[in-house]
Amino acid sequence: MRIDIGSAKPLEHATPALVIGCFEDDRDPLYHDCDTALGGLLGRLAESREFTGKHGSARLLHTLGRLPAERLLLVGLGKKKDISAERLRQGAGNAVSALRGARVASFSSALHHAASLPHAAETVAMGMLLGSYSFEQYKTKEKELRFTFDAVTVLLDSGEEAEAERQALERARIVSEGVTLARDLVSHPGNVVTPVYLAQAARELAERNGLECRVYELEELERMGMNALVGVGKGAAVAPRLIVLRYQGGKGRPVALVGKGITFDSGGISIKPGAGMEAMKTDMAGSAAVLGTMEAAARLKLPVNLVGIVPTAENMPDGNAFKPGDILTSLSGTTIEITNTDAEGRLILCDALHFAREQFKPAAMVDLATLTGACVVALGHEASGLMGNDQRLVDALKRAGDETGERVWPLPLWEEYGEVMKSDVADLKNAGSRDGGAISAGWFLKQFVGDTRWAHLDIAGTAWNDKARPYGPKGATGVGVRLLLEFLQAR
Ligand code: BES
Ligand code: MN
Ligand code: ZN
To answer: Ligand 1, closest atom to CA 262?
Structure first.
């Protein structure tokens, strides 16, 4: 969906649909003017409780020529005191859902006028852009029945500083395109998005944005001693890779972003049950978040140095596959007894984290991974698990989560949680007990970061929506991109 800026007064502006907001307990002058123009229709809807402004509601009306806009879309924003950036974004998402239902492809928005929040226009644009996403590349039938948005015109007040607002909307567009990149990568199936595909996507991204990109292939990974990453990739027809992207936008040591890139997780020899296994094409959502963030950060010209690191492999069972009982010597030298080949994410990450630390001496490292089913049990689909070795870093990510609505929730990493990860025959084993599984996985990663400031986000429950949400359809969420960009911007 394109995003345009308009300066017309909402009541004098011809458009297929005009979007306005209203609170349950407060109505702004624009609402009253619309009500007057429509002969009291809005008041009637409120009286009969057909539209009261409840958060989550939206009501599309035809104006029958009483306004220059053909339709008016009322968006409920709830109680005035409860308004927040997240609620406004959700309202914007609800608006595009209603417009999609009515197949209105172009429309104008005055929604941000209702909420007196900082950056309201940017927030609304973000909700609308993210909400307009759909992934239909593999649908070949009835193309003519399919619907795509054309453009939204954001109506700015004459008082609003046009240049600053233009830049804010441009930011929203860039960020939403980073999220879209991540969503697309996760949505494509595992026979398309392979380690080769991710490497190519990273090269093209680097090319587009003037980033450095280096892809380490199998031979080099073996020579370097990245045996944990190599081990995981053994059973697959496509070899594993390590992708490294660099963006230089500032001074000082970089922030390293590390993303799990398992393009399909069958479980390997410790194979998963068949039911639902198709969901494991999403096991590269961490890598998608890193790529989306790198691209957006470069386009936003964020004044930071970044390294994006993606270890990528397919976890498959065959005669060459690594197997339970195997012992791998990781890049750091720490030996790992494999007790479950389905605990593969931590293996590719432990080598990537050690590599990041040695190679780039980062000021901080953040990894994102669809790492454990246990994290989904703990937090459901409402928050990503957050662990780390540095309280300030953890707090900063928590704030970024609250700000963006990509919520994260802390889990402890006490030493006691590591007891189950100790092996009789090697330094560590890769899987312990099911109890506290998200944490023991985090504890395992912690063994490879040394004294580098580090945080880990377990996005197993947040990378994929089983149901549509206000500004994200069913399917890939692109989680992590907005969170990381907000975190980097606030640094
Ligand atoms: N990719 C899975 C975790 C996952 C589960 C992601 C559900 C998204 C949704 C991961 O590789 C895995 O299989 N983890 C195991 C670890 C166990 C064997 C210690 C798990 O969570 O069961
Ligand atoms: Mn697994
Ligand atoms: Zn996995």
So the answer is: 1
